Amino acid sequence: MDVETAYRWRKQLVWGLAMIAVGSIILLVQTDMLDLDLNPAHFWRYWPWLVVISGLTKIIPPTTPRHFTNGLWEIFFAGWWYVSFNHIWGLGFGQTWPALLVAWGIGMLLRPLLDNIFASIKEQA
Question: In angstroms, rounded to a whole number, what is the distance separating the alpha carbons of residues 24 and 16?
């Protein structure tokens, strides 16, 4: 199986599981078995979780160093956005934007290391 086919299958698996989880939660709320506020006006606050799911499809299991680092970046970005937008711990965009630079630098350092790790795994296979 080539890398792109594996990625496509993994992506479909993760998104399918996410849809099952969301549908199950909504069903439990609609049948009064779970008490959650599903006000549609509040959904926009949780869009970063879609980016987290997208990032997970790229890192579980990783097929290339680029997919892995892109997945980590998406997960970090979603977390940063969620914290900054909702002012968690009193932090907003003005205080947290340097974290993007740190994450970018970490990604630049990880890339050559991951290239070597993935290359040695391919040689062993």
Answer: 12
